[in-house]
Specification:
Layout (H helix, E strand, L loop, with lengths): L1 E2 L3 E6 L2 E6 L9 H16 L5 E6 L3 E3 L16 H7 L1 H10 L4 E5 L2 E3 L1 H7 L3 E5 L3 E3 L13 H9 L1 H10 L3 E2 H7 L4 E3 L4 H13 L3 H15 L3 H15 L3 H12 L9
Parallel strand pairs: 3-4, 4-6, 5-7, 6-8, 7-9, 8-11
Antiparallel strand pairs: 1-2, 2-3, 9-10
């Protein structure tokens, strides 16, 4: 069973596995965001789906937003409208679906890819996985719920260092900081995720869904407002000269020269 050209969908034994498959780095475009959102919508309504697994094809979970779509440089991109159309909806759907979502993080998760990874309920990382804030690397600020999830999971100081330096965290650091639940050898990741998902799918999924709702109510009730405020700040950051320089440098594969403008 397939969902478009960039999302692979497989349903077996109550587990729906969603695999991002947009070479080279599973970067999101509108088609992939829409395909993932639609697959989640259908999974929510399908009583035969009792647990989900989200992973990436190849050696990368997701590099986040396809930066080439932001490279027009004419200043006409509305970052708020873009986020409201894409990741705000996607993150809210992931957190709202009352079924467990297992994240099988098979490589780099950066930018919006990091936000999507952190929106899963339980995360298993391959030993080669890396976690990168990404946004500040192109002169932008947090979106996709990362301004909430990073401080919540790893603490404010560590989140600030990760965001300000844009330095990647390896899998073991992510485990120590609480971003992932466990780390397994690369070759063992699919089986580890499948085993956990099968165990959850065989459990009292209504109770699991209500527990997810309870956790959301206790800790993530502000998520809609956070996503809205992130979009507001991203609109400001997206108008800066630093952002234009960041994207240009990224595409030209050189170090950016930022001036705080």
């Amino acid at each position: 069973m397939a969902e478009g050209e960039t999302l692979r969908v497989h349903h077996s034994g109550g587990v729906l596995t969603l695999t991002l498959d947009r070479p080279k780095a599973n970067a999101f475009d509108l088609a992939l965001v829409d395909a993932l959102g639609e697959a989640l919508r259908r999974a929510e309504a399908d009583a035969g789906v009792r647990c989900l697994v989200l992973t990436g094809a190849g050696r990368v979970f997701s590099a986040g937003q396809d930066v080439s779509a932001l490279a027009g440089g004419d200043g006409n991109i509305s970052f708020r409208a873009h986020l409201e159309r894409t990741y705000n909806r996607l993150i809210l759907r992931m957190r709202g679906i009352e079924k467990p979502i297992v994240g099988a993080i098979n490589g780099a998760a950066a930018g919006a890819g990091l936000g999507v990874a952190l929106a899963t309920d339980v995360r298993i990382a391959a030993s080669s996985a890396r976690f990168v804030f990404g946004f500040t690397g192109i002169g932008l600020t947090a979106d996709s719920g990362t301004s909430l999830m990073l401080p919540l999971l790893m603490g404010l100081g560590r989140a600030a260092e990760m965001a300000f330096t844009n330095a990647p965290l390896d899998a073991e650091q992510a485990l120590a900081y609480g971003l992932v639940n466990r780390v397994v050898p690369d070759d063992d990741l699919p089986a580890a995720a499948a085993d956990l998902a099968a165990s959850l799918a065989a459990g009292p999924t209504r109770a699991l869904g209500l527990t997810k709702r309870a956790f959301h109510h206790s800790l993530l009730a502000a998520l809609p407002a956070v996503l809205d405020y992130e979009a507001h700040l991203q609109e400001i950051a997206g108008r800066t000269e630093d952002h234009r320089e960041g994207v240009k440098a990224f595409l030209e594969k050189r170090a950016a020269v930022y001036r705080g403008l």
